[in-house]
Write a structure and sequence with these properties.
Helix 4 (57-69) packs antiparallel against helix 5 (77-99). The N and C termini lie far apart (74 Å). It is built from 5 helices and 2 strands; from the N terminus they run ααββααα. The protein has a two-stranded antiparallel sheet with strand order 1-2. The chain has 102 residues and is mainly alpha-helical. Helix content is 68%, strand content 4%.
């Protein structure tokens, strides 16, 4: 009996150790809530609110462009215009960070 309890305890500990990286990779936590999707939409982009995602400028540009590329199948024309403006601002921020205030 004691041996069975010891094995069960070790198995449970092992499963807990393995599950932490898996949950982190699924985006459970800060970025999972930030990029909540509704019918394929990234709500924070469409509503022009802060998405709270941490990524490099090129990745962010690709992400926003990818959402814009979904077109009117997923987003309304107004939402697409909001995302185009956000893309434009992100490009300006990227250029400013690269060139500085010249």
């Amino acid at each position: 009996m004691r041996r069975l309890i010891c094995r069960l305890t070790l198995n449970i500990a092992f499963l807990m150790i393995i599950s932490v990286p898996v949950l982190a990779a699924d985006g459970i936590g800060s970025q999972g809530a930030a990029t909540a999707q509704q019918n394929g939409k990234v709500v924070c982009l469409a509503m022009n609110t802060d998405c709270n995602v941490t990524m490099s400028f090129p990745d962010k540009l690709d992400w926003i462009q990818g959402e814009i590329d979904k077109g009117t199948v997923v987003y309304s024309s107004e939402e697409l215009n909001v995302m185009r403006e956000r893309l434009k601002r992100t490009i300006e921020e990227f250029e400013y960070s690269m060139l500085g205030d010249t």
